[in-house]
Design goal:
The structure is a single chain. The protein is an alpha+beta fold. The chain contains five helices and eight strands. The protein has helices spanning 6-14, 16-34, 38-63, 131-137, 144-153, and strands at 69-76, 79-83, 88-92, 96-102, 109-114, 120-123, 126-127, 159-163. A hairpin with a 4-residue loop joins strand 2 (79-83) and strand 3. Helix 2 packs antiparallel against helix 3. The longest helix is centred in the N-terminal third of the chain and has 26 residues, at 38-63.
């Protein structure tokens, strides 16, 4: 039997990293300014770790666009799989060539491309979409803040978020 309403539980879960970071900061500040010795040093360490978790948590919060979208996303052993009501497929993370955001689709979709395969379109709010943040953040050279701003902005055309090998000459700027 649960004493927390399902809506409240979902809200707390959505903000989980920031709640943990706030608790760490409060405890760290208390220990850093009211204690001596090892406890004081531990307090300062908690403050630093709390700030790091807060930054990461804020990025993850911006990545979460709700739930209830069509299909399910799974990441297992370097493979991104999407099981949707009409489409689906899998792409190896190591073979990913291009990541695009299609804000014109309803809901918006991540479009993952791998050579020799049809592009894999994943709704940004599919069940389990949170795991994609870690996969995307690990892509070499991906600019997380740019990805998050494009995700929030919307737009009238698809946007290339990341490419393994740039399709433009190095002198041409993307923006």
């Amino acid at each position: 039997m649960s004493f927390i309403r399902p809506e409240a539980r979902l809200a707390l879960w959505r903000w989980r990293e920031l709640i943990v970071a706030a608790l760490m900061l409060l405890i760290g500040l208390n220990w850093a300014f009211t204690s001596f010795g090892v406890t004081k040093a531990t307090g300062w360490a908690l403050i630093v770790i709390g700030v790091i978790i807060a930054v990461i948590g804020a990025q993850r919060l911006r990545f979460r666009l709700g739930a209830g979208g069509p299909g399910v996303v799974r990441v297992d052993e370097g493979q991104i799989a999407y099981f949707g009501p009409l489409t689906g497929g899998a792409i190896a993370t190591s073979e990913l060539e291009r990541l695009r955001l299609d804000p014109t689709a309803k809901p918006a979709h991540w479009v993952l491309e791998q050579d020799g395969q049809a592009p894999l379109a994943i709704p940004v709010n599919a069940e389990g979409h949170e795991v994609l943040f870690d996969v995307f953040a690990a892509l070499p050279g991906l600019k997380t803040e740019r990805m998050l701003s494009e995700l929030r902005r919307g737009g009238a055309h698809q946007v290339v978020i990341w490419e393994r090998t740039p399709s433009r000459p190095p002198l041409h700027r993307l923006h």
